[in-house]
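Entry 14. Structure prediction run on the chain below.
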Amino acid sequence: MNPLKTKPATSVSARTVMAAAAADIILILAFAAIGRDAHHREEPVLGVLLTAWPFLAGAAVGWMAARAWRSPLSVLRAGVPVWLGSLIGGMVLRALTAQTVVIPFIIVATLALAVFLVGYRLLFVGLARFRRS
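Output returned:
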């Protein structure tokens, strides 16, 4: 069994799917909030939502394209597609809506979203493996 994949799709509960989706949303909002705070931007709540929406939309596309609900805590089947969807979709939507898309921001977003969206799934897999041993 591949340690980067979790339970097969037939045994994934709706609760697990909802928890993973909620974690993705919260972590993308945290990414946006941290970025806005680092740049001392105005309008904290509305500003975070305006910064986060392209990445949230991209993550939703990643969820759909990968059918992440089948194995929402899998690093390869869900984490990587959701990360890439949020990153690529987010940057494309930012560019289309005249928001800032510069190389330093792309680098920071790539790393931060990877740590957040893939990272918690890696932790989950590691803890599950630890519990089994």
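Residues 103-132 form the longest helix (30 residues).
Filed with the rest of this week's runs.
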